[in-house]
Amino acid sequence: MKAPKKAPLCAGCYRRLTKQQTNFCPICALALFDGRTVSAGLRFPEPQQAEPEEALRYRELTRQMSMSGVQEKFSVRLTAETSALELTRTGGQFILKPIPDIKQHAEAVPANEHLTMQLARQVFRLPVAACAVVQFAGGQPAYLTRRFDVQADGSRLLQEDFAQLAGRTQQQHGLNYKYDFSCEEMGQLLRQLLPATYLPELTAFFRLLLFNYLVGNGDAHLKNFSLYRTTADGAYHLTPAYDLLSTKLHFPYESDTAVSLFADPDDDPPDFSALGFYTYPDFLALGQRLGLPLSRVRRLLTDIVSHEAKAQALIDRSFLPDDLKVRYAAVLADRRQRLRYGAPV
């Protein structure tokens, strides 16, 4: 006797869908599309499969995107008439990332980024941009995320990434301008810019640093952290997290962190010099240098190595291929071990 066929998963959060639901559960449909019924199947092909005329349009749209980064990104909006996602030059509400041109497991990058964002939101309760995995007309996966800086009326919130905030540019500081910095200096910048609210913002920043280390995100550079001015109180806050993924799956020999923890390399604690990687004492020292209460730093370090069962359950439900699910879980296990090294018993 055959086992009953399992219901499909929500493309946003992995919940099992009912027979009445298509692609997205009500919660994700609300977060992504304001409750509208939208298909996860795009009506246009991926760039590599596009006809010459469509390929030319892709190139034009790539040039006009106002976002930085190496990976191709396209601006997408939801049509008012058909509730379909379409490429656009202006008025974009979403960012669409196709499979990037990298050597290792390129086809799994959309699922990797989506899983990492879901781990941040569902397991560690970090604020992240709403996102999903969608498919081009030819069936190839892509990563879709809603722009949190775009308001309902189409206006945009003022947002600046940490490269802009620190005044670092490629012209003035060279090709590594977004990497030649430190987490300690980023924290100092937060304290300078947000003197009245720096403690909760620094706490959120420190939690995100720990999460990036846990999942093996070695490309969390200055442009992957931003402040924006919200309409709720007119004040500046850290934006929801974005561009989170386990780069370790695709670049196994890269550095563990995009920027160093400490402003002065000579200040690295003895354990780092001896082991060659960051452990509990390193992050404990960083948290204290950022000005966070010691009890809070310890609590956050305890929390980041917890939730193993919840994290594994989410990995198992993700859209990664089975072999990369195993590797993803192994990265988390290795980082938990590092973050427990030197911790009080």
Which helices and strands, and how do they pair?
Elements: H1 26-33, H2 52-64, E1 74-78, E2 85-87, E3 94-97, H3 109-123, E4 131-135, E5 141-146, E6 159-161, H4 162-165, H5 170-173, H6 183-193, H7 198-215, E7 226-229, E8 236-238, H8 270-275, H9 280-289, H10 294-304, H11 308-317, H12 322-340
Antiparallel strand pairs: 1-2, 1-3, 3-5, 4-5, 6-7, 7-8
3D architecture notes:
The chain folds into 2 domains: 26-62 and 69-146; 159-340, Phosphatidylinositol 3-kinase Catalytic Subunit, Chain A, Domain 5 (Orthogonal Bundle). The chain is 37% helix and 10% strand. It contains 12 helices and 8 strands. The chain has helices at 26-33, 52-64, 109-123, 162-165, 170-173, 183-193, 198-215, 270-275, 280-289, 294-304, 308-317, 322-340, and strands at residues 74-78, 85-87, 94-97, 131-135, 141-146, 159-161, 226-229, 236-238. A hairpin with a 6-residue loop joins β7 (226-229) and β8. The longest helix is centred in the last third of the chain and has 19 residues, at 322-340. The N and C termini lie far apart (51 Å).
